[in-house]
Amino acid sequence: MARFKTPSVEMVKLLCDSGSTNYATASAALHELAVALTLPLKQGVMKGDIIGGIFEPIKFQPGAAIEFPLDFLSPGSEKDYVAYTIPNQGRIPERHVEGDFVMVPVYDVGCSIDWNLKYARDARWDIIGRAMQVLESSFVRKNNNDGWHTLLAAGVGRGLVIYDDAGTAGLFTKRLVALMKTSMRRYGGGNSTSINRGKLTDLYMSPEALEDIRSWDLSQVDDTTRRQIFIGGGDTEAALSNIFGVNLHDIDELGVGQEYQAYYTSTLGGSLPGSKVETVIGLDLSKNDSFVNPIRQEIEIFEDPTFHRQRRASMYGWGEHGFSVLDSRRILLGAL
What is the pLDDT of residues 219-236, one digit of tens each? Predict the structure, then answer.
């Protein structure tokens, strides 16, 4: 986390003062340090997630009702409209079939970290910076989990799992992409001339599934594409980032035995057809009308003066937000 590695002279002074034996000096400095670290920490939370390109953050003013009207639906299509929200902290996402609007609940999220005052007194920014990284990572992980749990619940609720019946179990094929494109169109609502009809734009899978592309032979792709796959993709890049106009993404939490795969099967009760072993998630991100992240209060960082008697400094933060899939037809599950 480079922004904490080269602090300014002013930040170093604040850090040293926060470790002062003078309580008034230490308290004032710790408060200023918390204020100074709030912005970079919030930026880190936004940059480090794997949901930022999916959910749209929407800030609400205090007292505003967090509701989303459904007046964009065509008369008679209300029965096809299913939304999913997280009802409260730590709860499994719930299904809503609404007629006029969806109320999205928000909840508090928080975390804290503390360190010995001698590290502040000695200006050990490397240690304090690592503490801030842990604090940031806690918020990032919470956001990632809540967002993806909501997506997976919406996918399971649809009761559709698309798979290539001719493909080897666990092997990612381009036929699966084609089948999911067609299925998103068929089951996304509307007809050939509908403005908001479903369209598969992004596909999320495990790193192993995405690496299967490197094993495609001439029966799957031409020589030019095979060369592109062979020389492309470093440690942080996919071998191929787009197939049939669908963007491909890999996330570590998907795959056999991984966290989101376990949540899909164990917590949500999802199943895989036949001999298939892992899940892929297809999304329609062509319109910003379904995946929302309402924010009642952005993350704020505060100092905790009660730790001074233990010769420790502590910071804690909290925010208030929620996640919702307003229209489950924008998500489709596949299986490898």
Answer: 676 666 666 666 665 555
The runs of H, that is alpha helices, within the chain are 9-18, 23-47, 117-121, 125-158, 174-187, 207-211, 223-231, 259-262
Q: Would you tell me which CATH number, out of the four given (2.40.160, 3.40.50, 1.10.3470, 3.30.2400), belongs to the domain 2-150+291-325?
A: 3.30.2400
Chain segment 287-335, per-residue pLDDT in tens:
878 899 999 988 888 888 888 888 888 888 889 999 999 888 899 999 9
The model's pTM is 0.84
CATH architecture of the region 157-288+329-335: 2-Layer Sandwich (3.30)
Phi/psi of residue 328, nearest 5 degrees = -70, -10
Q: Which two tokens stand for residue 306?
A: 């009660």
The answer for residues whose C-beta is within 8 angstroms of residue 2's C-beta and 6 or more apart is none
